[in-house]
Amino acid sequence: MTFVDTLAFQLFSLAFVSAALFYSGLVGYVTYLRYGPRRTFEHLRSQAVPLAGLGVVITSIGLWGEIVWPLPGSYNILFFDPYTLLGITLLAYAICLALRWRTQYVGLLAAMVGLLSIYYGANAYNLGLTKEPLAMFLLYVAMGGMAIFTFPVTIWIDRYVISPIISPEPGGASPDSKPSAAMSAEVKVLFGLFLIFLLFALGSAIATLYIGGNALTQHLSYAP
Asked: Most CB contacts within 10 A, which of 33, 89, 179, 221?
């Protein structure tokens, strides 16, 4: 079987996902404060387009790896299992936004994928499967943490962005109105979890770019 190492490209694709989620989350929140739910939803649907493209690429490479097993031994399990599930999650999220469906079930799926990612990373660290087991473990934790905290973010999207548009309450706020300056207890909790999501997204973007850059240099110098 021919050895094909796609690790560097996989790492960069993960970095693109993390960076896109960090930027869109930050801009989306500012848009919500300034313009209200409708403009925020338009922003989210635009953001879903590149995420869907990345989802197609990630899912395709992930399924290819699951079928072909190009890497030596258990590295296929470590690198392709969570990768494939991430691609499926991104596609599901993009579809929900395109069809104006609620996103929290995708967020729940993302949380489960995140927990699985951390579990994979912990096992890889204990078994010393990579040359830099600690760096790889931290990468899996960062990606997993971002995925886990996607769940409360999707709950916020459903309740405060999508619901006012698809099923506005009688006498409630208009989808085009700005949110009230006073934050309820629920909103404060969700906002705190949203900040944690942004931190994990930023951390995973930096980690994947760093590790991916080192891997790319090695691959270009000594092509397999």
From this structure: 89
Per the structure block, which two tokens stand in for 110? Answer: 């993302």
Question: Residue 2 pLDDT more than 80?
Answer: no
The tally of domains found in the chain comes to: 1
Q: Is the dihedral of CA 146, 148, 152, 153 positive or negative?
A: positive
| Element at 156 (helix H, strand E) | helix 150-157
User: Residue 61 domain-assigned?
Assistant: yes
Cβ neighbours, 10 Å, residue 10: 22
Residue 1 burial by Cβ neighbours in a 10 Å radius (0-12, 13-18, 19+): exposed
Q: How far apart are CA 138 and CA 116, in angstroms?
A: 14
Domain annotation covers residue 172: no
Q: What is the pTM of this model?
A: 0.90
Contact 104, 154 (CB under 8 A): yes
Domain that holds residue 34: 7-166+177-221
